[in-house]
Write a structure and sequence with these properties.
By secondary structure, the chain is α/β, with parallel strands linked by helices. The protein has seven helices and seven strands, in the order H-H-H-E-H-E-H-E-E-H-E-H-E-E. Helix 1 packs across helix 2 (23-40) and helix 2 runs antiparallel to helix 4.
Amino acid sequence: MSERHVEVQISRRAERAGLPVSPALAESLRAYLELLAKWNRKINLTSLQVDPPNDDAIDRLIVEPLAGARLVRPDDRFVIDVGSGGGSPAIPFKLAAPQLRSVMIEVKTRKSAFLREAIRQLDLRDTVVETHLVQELLPRVALHEAADLVTVRAVRMDLAVLGPIRSFLRPSGRVFWFGAVSVPSLSAAIASAGLRVELPDFGTSAQVAVTVLSKQ
């Protein structure tokens, strides 16, 4: 599959969700998918089909982060991504909202190496990787109530994770939780962490799944 074909595919899937993508952004997103596919042959970064990418992979890895980036407020400045793994939502989100300072948290060393290589190759400014569990960053006082946004996908959202996330959020901060989420089964943990659920309607629920949490 040619580079141009993948860029057209990205643009087509995004437009289907009501998210226009510039040629420059499509090129950067394609470069990310290409790097992900290359590394995925060596280490398990994603179970989605990325070599070549199918529509479902593009929806999950690219379109959902683009939908989340549409919700970025003008005064949002700092985003933390928890469990960054294969780089989505963090990298497409950063490409779509380059003004944000970004921290990616990933506990596994090899996945962190992939993320750092993606940062280098995609020239992502003001972006760093922390090879830690999110709980291990709690002693860093500078992170407390510092984040406008926390993004997360495919992470078990229990109190051990939700508690630190809440600590890092500003009073007006929000969590963008990507992927299909069983909110009722987690409502007690969410409430215990001092968060509440908002369910944005993107009008494309079959293609995009993003749940927004905010502080109570």
